[in-house]
Every structure is written in C-alpha cells, then in structure tokens.
Design goal:
Helix content: 40-55%
Structural class: alpha/beta
Distance between the termini: 58 Å
Bound molecules: nicotinamide-adenine-dinucleotide
Strand order of the largest sheet: 3-2-1-4-5-6
C-alpha cells in the first residue's frame, strides 16, 4: 500500500484516484474548487462516468479514498504526488501549462526530501524537465523525482480503461522515482501489462502521438464518408472492410460529425503548435484540425440546405439530439453541438435539444436553447432533426412518433442511430452520414 496525493479532482484525477484506491492504495484527492470537494464529500460525483459513483462510495467507506482542499497536509503525507490538473489550449492552439506549474509550486514546499511527483496531465515534451527545475528552484538541495506518466483512459469507459490498460508509460531519468511508480502499478505488472519506461520527453510525446493518430483515423474515415455520399456507397461497409486488417484495426473508424471532447481537439492543436515551435511542423495534423473544424461547419450548411427547401430560416426550428461529444459522458467540451447550435442561432433558427446526460453541462455553455426531457419533445414542430451523439437510447426512438411530432421531415443522422428503412417508411426524409440515400440498406 502506498499513500497517494492526487492534485486535481477532475475527470482524470478523480477516476485515477478512485482506481488507485481500488488497487489497494490510500488516496487523497485534492481540488482547489471547494464546491467540488464538498460535493465529493457528500457522495455527489461532479461528472457522469459509468461505474464511478459506486466505486467512489465503496472506497470512501473503506477509508481508502478521501477528498480535501488541504493541499499541504495531503502532500506531506504522500509517497507519490500526482498532478492531474487541466492543460487547456491557448488562443494560438499551444498548450497552457499554467495550472501544472501552479500546482507544482504549491506542492513544492510540502514535499518530502525524496518525494516522487508524477505528471499525469497531458503536457508537451520538456514539461517534466521544466517542472523538475521549477521545484528544484523553489526547494533547492532535495532529491525529488519528477516523472511523466500520461493517462490513456477514455471518458465513458474510464474505469475499465484504467483497470485494464494496454500499457503503462513511465518517463523518467531517476531510477528511484521510476521504481517507486512501478511499485505503485505493480498489480498491473503481475498481469503482464507492458511497461514502457523511457525518457520523460518520449513519454510526453507518446501521449500526443497516440491521440493525434486516433484523431487522424476519425478524420480519414470522415473524408471517406464524404466520398461514399458522392458515389452511393456506405462508409460502414468500407470501415468494416478496412478495419478487419489488423494493421489498421476497427476502432476509431466510425464516421460522424467530427471529433470533439476534452482531448483530441486540444491535443492535436498542441502537437501542431509544438511541432512548429520545435522546427518540425506537423502538416498532416494541421490539415486534420482544419478539416475537422470545417466538418462541423458543414453540418450547419447541410441543415440550412434542408431548411431552405421548407421554410424561411427565421421561422425554422432544429432539434438537436445529443450534446455530449460522445455517448456515456456528460462532457460537452468541444462537442459538435457546441459549434453547431450557436451557428444555427446566428442564422435566426430556434433550437430545441435533448441529451440523456449532458443537458446540465451544455446549458452552462449555451444560451436560448429549449432543453427537452425527451427526444419527442425536442422534435415537436421541428423542421430538421440532427443527431450528433450516439447514445444507445436513441436507437429505441419510435420514428413514427417522431415523424408525427415534426413540422418538416428531415433527419440528418450523423451517428447511424436510426434504422434507415423504418425512418423512410415513417415518411421521414432520412439522411445518414457516409451513406448516400441509394446505398441505405432496405
Ligand atoms: N478527460 C480525459 O478524458 C483525459 C484523458 C487523458 C488525459 N487527460 C488530461 O488530464 C488532464 C486533466 O484533465 P481533466 O479532464 O481531468 O481536467 P478537469 O478540468 O476535468 O479537471 C482538472 C481539475 O484540477 C483542478 N485544479 C486545477 N489546479 C489545481 C490546483 N492547483 N490544486 C488543486 N486542484 C486543481 C480543477 O479545479 C479541476 O477540478 C489534462 O491535461 C487532460 O488533457 C484527460
């Protein structure tokens, strides 16, 4: 058992903290947001993540997981101090390290002489070294290790991803620090999970290179989807056919509205900006970012085309199904809806929206949207329905009931949630991403 202080009780900090406690460690989660800590103390989980609430409750009861705003005490008592705070984009796309630096300076005076600080946040190469220098400057003469340990969990399946990792990446130069972190993760070592132990710079780049590669797969299949739409093809058949090749793999080959979320847009921008700065530009990634942004604008162009056929935009209503950037999360950061809805509103279009989990988070970022408890309410008098999130519950929607509540008939399905033949039989003018109407199977 080791004692862990987790600085940052957000998505990654909270999940990682709970999972480390489940591995048998004693974890204290520290967050500077006192409301978040008070909520967590009362058992209220600030994010929607399947399985997290009962896991936190169980470990709290076992006194292996606790929450505090008292950073000094948590740091002093810890064998390992994780930094899992936010690393947002700056206006030019580069990464803003201010939260990581601030957290390092806050913990520095309270660290034990041989403390281990682990950078869990996604940070550009060189950050670990920079944080080590910052800490050494603040508390000189100590043998404190700073190690990179990027996180690969996905929102929506974060617990399973953490507990069944493909690999553990550790970047460090100090043998004692690396060995302490290996010990922390020893239950994974016993299960033969590969450990990639390398320099901090390589570890930091692994995270960006991995995320950018996955985003490239999405961008690529979206371009192939455009082609399918032109030639009467079906992108799902093409994706299936190529994904069976183990050199390619089937994951991240679902065409859709464009990638969003808290990681891919931010991390691709950071990699592009870092590449420019380091003298090794990343033109593929630069193009990917531009294509993805254009794709989201393309959703609005498509909606306007549909509306143009039916009603003056001033009097039009669009129903948006799905605000979360993907299913099984309430995270709306850089989700398609966050781009699409303000653009529709600017064109004078009224928006009704429904999401099973993300309406609270979305309503903090969007104004003048009519939030609806169910998809049928959102579809009421709508000229167009656009599906932006692949919530499983959307597959159970009764298309006949939907058609009956709409004013128009257009459905733009960016997630293949509806059965095409049922939608067409219900009288809907149904369009699915990457599948020209002629190619939609009967
Ligand atoms: N969200 C993901 O799926 C995911 C996956 C892998 C990696 N990451 C990376 O992990 C990092 C954290 O992401 P997140 O989604 O958890 O962010 P988040 O915004 O959800 O959480 C960050 C938390 O840190 C707290 N915080 C900031 N400064 C603090 C300080 N000095 N002391 C205590 N608390 C502080 C904030 O109040 C917030 O609650 C980012 O670098 C992100 O890129 C995220």
């Amino acid at each position: 058992m080791m004692r862990v202080a987790m600085i940052g009780g957000g998505y990654v900090g909270l999940t990682t903290g709970a999972c480390l406690a489940d591995l048998g460690h004693e974890v204290v989660c520290v967050d500077k947001d006192p409301r978040r800590i008070a909520d967590l103390d009362r058992g209220k989980i600030p994010i929607y993540e399947p399985g997290l609430q009962p896991l936190v409750a169980r470990l709290k009861k076992l006194e292996r997981l606790s929450f505090t705003s008292d950073l000094p005490s948590a740091t002093r008592a810890a064998d390992v101090v994780f930094i899992a705070v936010g690393t947002p984009s700056r206006a030019d796309g580069s990464i803003d390290l201010a939260q990581v630096e601030a957290a390092a300076l806050e913990v520095a005076p309270h660290l034990a002489d041989d403390a281990l600080v682990v950078i869990k946040s996604t940070v550009v190469p060189g950050t670990c070294r920079r944080i080590a220098d910052l800490i050494a400057g603040a508390v000189p003469g100590r043998s404190i290790s700073v190690v990179s340990n990027p996180e690969f969990l996905r929102e929506g399946s974060a617990i399973v991803d953490f507990m069944q990792p493909d690999r553990i990446v550790i970047g460090g130069r100090n043998a004692a620090g690396i060995s302490r972190l290996r010990k922390l993760y020893s239950p994974f070592g016993k299960r033969n999970v590969p450990f990639v132990v390398t320099t901090p710079e390589n570890a930091e780049l692994i995270k960006y290179a991995a995320n950018a590669f996955l985003a490239l797969k999405i961008g690529y299949i979206n371009d192939i989807a455009n082609l399918c739409e032109q030639i009467g093809g079906d992108v799902r058949a093409v994706a299936h056919g190529i994904g069976l090749d183990p050199r390619i793999g089937s994951s991240f080959l679902a065409a859709g509205p464009g990638f969003g979320g808290s990681c891919f847009p931010k991390d691709t921008r950071a990699l592009a900006a870092f590449g420019r700065e380091a003298g090794a530009p990343q033109p593929l990634i630069e193009l990917l970012i531009a294509r993805n942004e254009d794709r989201m604008r393309g959703i609005v162009r498509r909606i306007l085309e549909k509306i143009g056929q039916r009603a003056a935009a001033r009097d039009a209503t669009v129903a948006v199904f799905g605000l979360a950037f993907k299913a099984n999360t309430d995270d709306v950061r850089e989700a398609a809806g966050l781009t699409v809805i303000p653009m529709l509103q600017q064109a004078g279009i009224r928006v009704r929206a429904h999401d099973p989990e993300a309406m609270v988070t979305a309503s903090q970022l969007l104004a003048d949207v009519e939030w609806c408890d169910c998809p049928y309410g959102a579809a009421r008098e709508a000229d167009v329905i656009v599906v932006l999130t692949e919530w499983p519950s959307f597959r159970d929607i009764d298309v006949n009931r939907l058609a009956g509540s709409m004013r128009g008939q257009s459905v733009l399905d960016y997630r293949h949630v509806f059965n095409p033949s049922s939608a067409v039989s219900a009288g809907l003018d149904y369009w699915a991403v990457g599948a020209a109407p002629a190619a939609v199977p009967a």
